[in-house]
Amino acid sequence: MSDLWQNAMDHAVAIARKSGELVREALRDDRKVMTKSSSIDLVTKTDQKVEQLIIQSVREKFPSHRFIGEESVAAGETCDLTDTPTWIIDPIDGTTNFVHAFPFVAVSIGFYVNKQSEFAVVFSCLEDKMFTARRGGGAFCNGEPLQVSDQEDVRQSIIATEFGSNRDVEAVDKIFSSLRNILCLPVQGVRSAGTAAINMCLVASGCVEAYYEIGVHVWDVAAASLIVSEAGGVLMDVDGGAVDLMSRRIIAANNRTIAENLVKEIESFSPTRDDTPPPQVNHY
Ligand SMILES: O=P(O)(O)O[C@H]1[C@H](O)[C@@H](O)[C@H](O)[C@H](O)[C@@H]1O
Ligand SMILES: [Mg+2]
Ligand SMILES: [Mg+2]
């Protein structure tokens, strides 16, 4: 039977590759930085250009589809996931890396129908690694199948996490307290690639056992979540419940045992959800 979404997935791979070329060119010539919510929440013209490129090209081919894009939401678009086919886009995952030429930068495209992930593309454009997954069809890197690590012992694991862009002291204290608990289990190592999507692809590749973060956004994790689950991994909320992509909290792990070990050590908190409507402005 033919795959209903094959055409869309082929387009996602092609446009992610083209976007990656644009990112690589910009890395050589144009990394002018602007800020969003704070002095450490960075955006560049390239983030905006890539998001526009992806949205315009998809709109031409699939006019009825909807979008959730990081830079469109920053510009005031809503962040609602409905049953309509929706492309969830992070044009540059790892903007701070991009600005500093730290070599992990990804273009991330997730595709959801009826709120279920159908396919995913994460292009780690400086490593030239194209990660893909199709629901029920497995996960791949440059066409090679991916499989999570079979490690069951957290003490023999590497855990990835990030510090995010929240510098609120209470949140930073919780982040450090969780990190301290996990380091002192002890685990064999803690790593940060600087991008949620690549951290999760490292889980899918079996290089790290788990990744967790509080403060991510839906566009950071929408694509890589399917890549992790299709590689045999699990997704969990930091309190141990089912993951909710709008909640800005995630554990992506090779198996439940490792994920549950992390749940015990993480001091959780709840950032403002991505699907919270913006405050109403009264024009009297
Ligand atoms: O803003 P971009 O798209 O570069 O993405 C984010 C990363 O992916 C996070 O894991 C990470 O912790 C950062 O906060 C960063 O916001
Ligand atoms: Mg991102
Ligand atoms: Mg981004």
From TrEMBL:
Residues annotated for Mg(2+) 2 binding in this entry: D90, D93, D220
Cellular component GO terms, alphabetical: cytoplasm
Cellular compartment(s): Cytoplasm
InterPro entries, sorted: IMPase, Inositol_monoP_metal-BS, Inositol_monoPase_Li-sen, Inositol_monophosphatase-like, Inositol_monophosphatase_CS
Cofactor(s) recorded in Swiss-Prot or TrEMBL: Mg(2+)
Catalytic activity: 1D-myo-inositol 6-phosphate + H2O = myo-inositol + phosphate; alpha-D-galactose 1-phosphate + H2O = D-galactose + phosphate; D-glucose 6-phosphate + H2O = D-glucose + phosphate; adenosine 2'-phosphate + H2O = adenosine + phosphate
GO biological process terms, semicolon-separated: inositol metabolic process; phosphatidylinositol phosphate biosynthetic process; signal transduction
GO molecular function, one term: metal ion binding
Annotated Mg(2+) 1 binding sites: E70, I92
Keyword Hydrolase assigned: yes
UniProt entry keywords in alphabetical sequence: Cytoplasm, Hydrolase, Lithium, Magnesium, Metal-binding
Source superkingdom: Eukaryota
Subunit structure: Homodimer.
Family: Belongs to the inositol monophosphatase superfamily.
Protein name according to UniProt: Inositol-1-monophosphatase
Organism: Pleuronectes platessa (European plaice)
Organism ancestry: Eukaryota, Metazoa, Chordata, Craniata, Vertebrata
